[in-house]
């Protein structure tokens, strides 16, 4: 067994504060990472570009030396939430669990990017309430339904319109846009706003609020 | 909106590989952190010292500049797993979810320390199977029942012996020790082995296996 001098000495010296601290805390991890843990909660219709912006955001932050992790509604359903169906109560539980995991990631000091439709205001507010003030940053992908439906990257709108998917958000289930979210991302005028530009909007917000330093 | 030159240039130059990469991957995060993501799965009886070793381990690794996060059976029950009871199927689900979350943490590049009794070999093997070869490091707190019961830090053995807790591991429910775990921690002879020494055993293992570098 290897016991390096610095640990042995802390055992011999009971006044050493590092050893007697009960555990490594959030602040210690944040100092190590030079950032503050939080969650960027990206909400919006299917096809609104949530995953694309999540990727661009993780890229932009990684290039600045910041540690991020994406929790994607679809991906988590293959692991943690694979026991959940798409019926109403299971969708709520899907969101609850992702928020709880995001909370653990934020506590770990990580900038967690959660990307999921999360159509109901009530569910999103329950998630927000789990976090300390400021650490839940809601980003609304404000893209009109007809644009999302035209894109239809997974062919889901087509299936929903054909009645092959029931309770599809925007078709036969409502999407409730945020009333007071931190950031709204939208196409302005005729110019196309690229995902990396949208990501920069979020990064500027994080910078301004002090999340990119310990 | 701020769009730094390096991002703008990637937009103007479609051959730039950084921008076209779909996302930040595990290897990128590991390079950033200079470590490899994995889970240290600490199993053992109540009172065997799992949490104490988990804390000492997180301290020892933090002092080396490594990012860790502790998933504690008890703590997670207050959040993610607060819908679960202590009946058999819920205990299995408790373990499954913790393993799935540990998998996300490992994918984030973090050294995740999971500390929970996890008494059944079968359940632990299900967890192990979620991880790439080598990334699930099982640590057995090999402390005799009578020692744990003498310590009884939470007074749970007393309650179990009095019949006030049913199905308590070691009393009226079995603990199945690992057959082929990576690390066994035990008191050797008469000398007391301190938690930080046990942590050093684990750290030496991680060092040897290359987990403390990218």
UniProtKB/TrEMBL annotation, chains A, B:
GO terms for molecular function: adenylylsulfate kinase activity; ATP binding. It is an enzyme of class 2 (transferase). It comes from the Eukaryota. It catalyses: adenosine 5'-phosphosulfate + ATP = 3'-phosphoadenylyl sulfate + ADP + H(+). The keyword Glycoprotein does not apply. Coiled coil: none annotated. Residues 36-185 form the APS kinase domain. Pfam families: APS_kinase. The keyword 4Fe-4S does not apply. One of its GO terms (cellular component) is cytoplasm. Its EC number is 2.7.1.25. Keywords: Amino-acid biosynthesis, ATP-binding, Cysteine biosynthesis, Kinase, Nucleotide-binding, Transferase. Pathway: Sulfur metabolism; hydrogen sulfide biosynthesis; sulfite from sulfate: step 2/3. InterPro entries: APS, APS_kinase_dom, P-loop_NTPase. GO terms for biological process: cysteine biosynthetic process; hydrogen sulfide biosynthetic process; sulfate assimilation. NCBIfam families: apsK (TIGR00455), PRK03846.1 (NF003013). HAMAP family: Adenylyl_sulf_kinase. Belongs to the APS kinase family. Catalyzes the synthesis of activated sulfate. This is Adenylyl-sulfate kinase. It comes from Prunus avium.
